[in-house]
Amino acid sequence: MLALRLSERKYVAEVLAEGKIGEKYVVAGWVDTIRVHGKLVFIILRDRTGKMQLVVKKNVSEHAWELARKLTVESVIGAKGTLVESKAALGGKEIVVEELVVYSKAEPLPIDIKDHTKTTLAKRLDWRFLDLRNPRNQLIFLVEAEMSKAARDFFYSNGFVEIYTSKIVGAATEGGAEVFSIVYFDKPAFLAQSPQLYKQMGVISGFEKVFEIGPAFRAEPHHTTRHLTEYTSVDFEMGFIDSFEDVMKVAERAVLSMIQRAIDKYGKKVNEYFPSALQEVPKDIPRISIREAYKLLKREGIHVEEGDDLSSEAERKLGEIVLREYGSPLVFVTEYPWKVRPFYTMRKEDEPEWTYSFDLLFRGLEIATGGQREHRYEVLIKQLEEKGLNPKNFEWYLAMFRYGAPPHGGAGIGLERVVMQYLGLSNIREARLLPRDPERLVP
Ligand code: AMO
Hints:
Layout: H1 12-18, E1 24-37, E2 40-47, E3 50-57, H2 62-69, E4 76-85, E5 93-104, H3 121-126, H4 128-131, H5 135-157, E6 161-162, E7 168-169, E8 181-184, E9 187-191, H6 196-207, E10 209-217, E11 230-239, H7 244-273, E12 287-289, H8 290-299, H9 312-326, E13 330-334, E14 357-362, E15 365-372, H10 377-386, H11 395-399, E16 408-414, H12 415-423
Helix pairs in contact: 5-7, 5-12
The protein binds aspartyl-adenosine-5'-monophosphate.
The site of aspartyl-adenosine-5'-monophosphate (AMO) has 22 residues, from β11, β15, β16 and α12.
């Protein structure tokens, strides 16, 4: 029976920080590097907490030394041995190995996992499990997890109820073209583009304030660096609002707390690997109407037709202008044209061609959309028809507005886009564990 028990295993960071010289420890992980020097083999062992040096000496254990000599990088091993001081080793300590177990021997690697710039993103994604052995790439997902947790904590502490809505739906919500069709037994169905109608249902059902962090699907045929066909949407919806200003305030606090928490927890590490990461969050986010944005852009030579949406180029330019003039990496653009907003958006009372809605841009890229919703039944029917949609397909939704619906609004925040913009990544695919785009379904 082997004396090395994984249940006794300590993480590398623990051993380096708290390990006592002269005591025995069990460590396990991946072989980061190996150097063979005659009767000595030096192994850098890597686990989720860091790296440390192991020394395998022929005169301590010939069996361990025989195994160590033939090791390959990224093999999975366990080792038991005595902790000793070492000037040359990382962290000033190393383990002199008495027992070595090889759990899984790695073949020669198909990609360079030490330097992500040496492999194309497409190939890295083909080998995603290896790509993530690189601590830089892993950090992206630690940041993402922390941001998602920050959002969840924020909504819980502000009285929002977490809901889980169906992703198999009977009708498109955000407009017809970008929806995936599926076959649901004998009926046509779709993958949800957004929990939009269901989060409104959450409010109208009487929960008043709800949120959801879940998948959203978009049949987005374009090959861009900012679109995925499946992404994680952080959605919230709240009732009894005075105006969409109330919604913007919540979106502002939610997004700022997501970025702040990532900086607090991982800022130092992030700076090591991501030189263009954001260093500091602003106290608050400036708001400009889209009509002001048209003017600002025109001054810089970018013409957007009144009533048109902002192109990605216009968004990028606006990001630069706002950073320069307001000192903020984030900006709310408000009152989008009715023409470019979905049917459920509330139009301005005095100027019906414009709406009570907003986008939130972060370093020149839209990361969130929201606004006040139309809650008056007759107006909603008209708006559906104006958008060329058939009210018959929305019967269950429309019914909600016949039995008591408060004024309400909400927003949807794209998690991967927040991560991408915070870290300064050039492609959203890097911020998605298993990205889906028109070409990629595997892994
Ligand atoms: P919208 O369609 O603008 O609004 O989406 C909200 C946010 O989701 C993110 N997003 C995407 N991220 C990656 N890939 C995509 N293809 C993609 N599409 C959208 C963006 C975007 O700002 N129901 C409304 C929200 C609301 O009003 O509450 C909606 O879905 O960050």
